[in-house]
Design a protein that fits this description.
Blueprint lengths: L1 E2 L2 H21 L6 E7 L3 H17 L2 E7 L5 H13 L5 E4 L9 H7 L11 H8 L8 H12 L8 E5 L6 H9 L8 E5 L6 H6 L3 E4 L16 E5 L3 E4 L7 E4 L4 H4 L3 E4 L6 H17 L6
Parallel strand pairs: 1-11, 2-3, 2-4, 5-6, 5-7, 7-8, 8-11
Antiparallel strand pairs: 9-10
Helix pairs in contact: 1-10, 2-10, 6-7, 6-10
The structure holds guanine.
The site of guanine has 7 residues, from strand 4.
Length: 293
C-alpha cells in the first residue's frame, strides 16, 4: 500500500509556481493577483480562505481579502463582483462558498467574469470542461488528477466510481476521469444517495473517489483488493484531544480500507492541500492570460 502524500506534492508544486513567478517578474511581467471575497464568519470558510492567502504568499502572488458581514445584501456583493471583473490588476478571484441563505450563490457565480473565474464554477468554464476545451477546472478534482499523474496511477480502461454528484467535486471529477486524456480514459460510474446498490458498485471499482461528506462511509467490505481510494471528505467531528476541539474526518474508514489498497489518500494531508495548490495553478494561468485573453 502506498500512502499518497498530498502535502509533499503540494509543497513541491508551490515551489514550482514560485520559481515561475520569479522568472515572470524578473522578465518585467506582472505578479499574479488573486482576490477572495469572504462573507460572514463560518469556521471552515475562515480556515480555507486564510490558507489560500498563505498559499498566495508562498507562490509569490499578490492577494487581496475582501470581507463582508453575513448581513451583506446580494446587491452589495454583486456590485463588488462587478468591480473585481473590471479591475485590471486582479487576474482572478473567488467568492468563498457557502453564502448566507438570502444570497443566491448561482447568481453570484454567474456574475463573475468567466475569464477571472479561477474556481471554475461559472457555467462557461463548466461547459468548456464538459466538451474538453481549455478552461479553469474546479480545484479539488484538478488536484486529484494531479495526484494520479504524479503517482503514475493507471486510469485508462479502469472502472472508476465517484461517490457524490456535487457541482464542485463529483460532477467535474466524473467529467475529468472519462475524458480522453492521461489520467482519464476511465469507465466512470457516479453514485449518490439514490443509487440502488452502491456497495456492489464500489466493490467492482478499480478506483473509488469518495466525495459525499459522510464520515467513515466507505468501509473495508466495500473495497476490492488492490483498489485506489481517493478520500475527499473533510467533515469536522468533535475531538476533545485536539486544541481546536475537532478533527477532520474523511469519507473513508481508513483503518479498514487502507490495508486493501494499492494507493490511498489520508485525511488530512491527501486531497486537501492539493485543492489549494490547484487554485494557485489556476491563478498562475490567469496571471499569464494562458486560457483567455
Ligand atoms: N467552498 C468549498 N470549497 C470551495 C471552493 O473550492 N471554492 C469556493 N469559492 N468556495 C468553496
Amino acid at each position: 500500500m502506498t500512502l499518497i502524500d498530498g502535502k509533499a506534492v503540494s509543497a513541491q508544486i508551490k515551489q514550482e509556481i514560485a520559481a515561475e513567478v520569479e522568472q515572470i517578474v524578473a522578465a518585467g511581467g506582472k505578479r499574479p493577483h488573486l482576490a477572495a471575497i469572504l462573507v460572514g464568519h463560518d469556521g471552515g470558510s475562515e480556515t480555507y480562505v486564510a490558507n489560500k492567502v498563505k498559499a498566495c504568499e508562498a507562490c509569490g502572488f499578490k492577494s487581496s481579502l475582501i470581507r463582508y458581514e453575513a448581513d451583506v445584501t446580494e446587491a452589495e456583493l454583486l456590485a463588488k463582483v462587478e468591480e473585481l471583473n473590471q479591475d485590471a490588476d486582479v487576474d482572478g478571484f473567488i467568492v468563498q462558498l457557502p453564502l448566507p441563505k438570502h444570497i443566491s450563490e448561482q447568481k453570484v457565480i454567474e456574475a463573475i467574469d468567466y475569464r477571472k473565474d479561477v474556481d471554475g464554477f461559472h457555467p462557461i468554464n463548466v461547459g468548456r470542461l464538459a466538451i474538453g476545451l481549455p478552461c479553469y477546472v474546479s480545484a479539488t478534482p484538478n488536484g486529484i488528477m494531479e495526484l494520479l499523474r504524479r503517482y503514475n496511477i493507471e486510469t485508462s480502461g479502469k472502472k472508476c466510481v465517484v461517490l457524490g454528484r456535487s457541482n464542485i467535486v463529483g460532477k467535474p471529477m466524473a467529467t475529468l476521469m472519462m475524458q480522453k486524456t492521461n489520467p482519464g480514459d476511465a469507465t466512470v460510474t457516479v453514485c449518490h444517495s439514490h443509487s440502488k446498490d452502491l456497495k456492489k458498485e464500489c466493490r467492482e471499482a478499480d478506483i473509488i473517489i469518495a466525495a459525499i461528506g459522510r464520515p467513515d462511509f466507505v468501509t473495508g467490505d466495500m473495497v476490492k483488493e488492490g483498489a485506489v481510494v481517493i478520500d475527499v471528505g473533510t467533515t469536522r467531528v468533535p475531538d476533545a484531544t485536539k486544541k481546536s476541539g475537532f478533527r477532520l474526518n474523511g469519507d473513508v474508514k481508513f483503518s479498514e480500507v487502507a490495508p486493501k489498497c494499492s494507493f490511498i489518500t489520508p485525511v488530512p494531508g491527501g486531497v486537501g492541500p492539493m485543492t489549494i495548490v490547484s487554485l494557485m495553478k489556476n491563478t498562475l494561468l490567469a496571471g499569464k492570460k494562458a486560457i483567455y485573453q
